[in-house]
Amino acid sequence: MSKATFFTRRHIVFICATLCCLLWGSAYPAIKNGYALLSIAPTDVAAQMLFAGYRFVLAGLVLLAVTAISGTSLGGLNPRQWGQITVLGLTQTALQYVFFYIGLSYATGVKASIMNATGTFFSVMLAHFLYHNDRLNQRKIIGCAVGFTGVVVVNFTGNLLNLDFTFLGEGFVVIAAFILAAASIYGKRISQSMDAMLMTGYQLTIGGVALILIGWLGGGELSGFTWTSGLLLVYLALLSSVAFTLWSALLKYNPVGMVTIFNFLVPIFGALLSAIFLNESILEWKNLLALGLVSLGIWLVTRPQHPFLK
After folding, report:
1. How far apart are CA 110 and CA 267, in angstroms?
2. Using alpha carbons only, how large is the chain's radius of gyration in Å?
3. Model confidence pLDDT, tens digit, residues 127-157
């Protein structure tokens, strides 16, 4: 491979990975703006589940359409694989987003984007116990410690004497991050026997249907749809499907370390976009320090191994 080709590939990875992180980061203000546009109160859990369910059913169907267009058959799965996809959909999509959507209704977008980044650190720690070739080392331990320090910092009040933390808000966001970390490891295992895009399309659809059923059974209603709120819902669905498709392609054709290191951009974009679109403060010292620590922690645990920091 020539030097020119190498740098061209690096530029493509940079642009596409940054776009994925930008899309994922934009979900925080988009969801909260969706709550405002549809007049969904923090206590109206049923309506929140409907909002989430519609998003993920649409996202799943888009991915399945892309899968079919690419020439992959939508059938051919055996009963065991259907069972695995159903479990993944009920955990990675349904259960995770029950906690995430409730938590985000009580927490600010800036704090939620920082708190949700704990998922990366949970993944690193869980992998240590599940994979013999993915153990914790000095670099990962330091990265997790730095990242969790940032999570603690963002929950302090300005005078450092009290914690600004609620179980239904920040607590639920962290629980959602842990569920995502555990479910993602399970998804990685079962993806070895089936097409990753097909698997994700079905699990998003199944999880979305489960969320809709939860919303309906809880008596939830979504009213007041306008062009603005409708387009926002479509955007939320597309950001999930587009980001996944791009990210999967990057991982398929490039070294994993070259791609996953960009994960540190997600909380940065989430916090910045929440500040812009939700008029939230990001300039408080605790927010800036926490964002820096969490991003540094993610960078440390995802960067390729360095001989001086193993």
Report:
1. 8
2. 19
3. 888 777 777 788 888 888 888 888 888 887 6
Helices 79-88, 196-217: axis angle to 10 degrees equals: 60
Write down the domain spans for the chain: 31-302
CA neighbor of 81 nearest in space, from 202, 183, 173: 202
Quote the longest CA-to-CA distance of the chain: 61
Instruction: Write out pLDDT tens, residues 79-102.
Output: 999 999 999 999 999 999 999 999
CA nearest neighbour of 238 among 39, 54, 49: 54
Sequence-ordered strand ranges (E) for the chain: none
Give per-residue pLDDT as tens, 179-232. 988 888 888 888 888 888 898 999 999 999 999 999 999 998 888 789 999 999
Distance CA 259, CA 248 (A): 10
Q: Which of 108, 113, 102, 116 is nearest to 48 (CA)?
A: 102
DSSP string, 118-172: HHHHHHHHHHHHH-TTS---HHHHHHHHHHHHHHHHHTB-TTSSSB---IIIIIH
Instruction: Give the C-alpha separation, 220 to 213, whole Å.
Output: 10
- Three-state DSSP at 106 gives helix
User: For 54-63, how does the pLDDT look when each residue is reduced to its tens digit (9 = 90+)?
Assistant: 999 999 999 9
Beta bridge partners of 156: 163
Q: Are 153 and 290 in contact (CB under 8 A)?
A: yes
pTM: 0.87
Instruction: Supply the DSSP symbol for 73.
Output: -
How far, in whole angstroms, is CA 18 from its chain's centroid?
A: 14
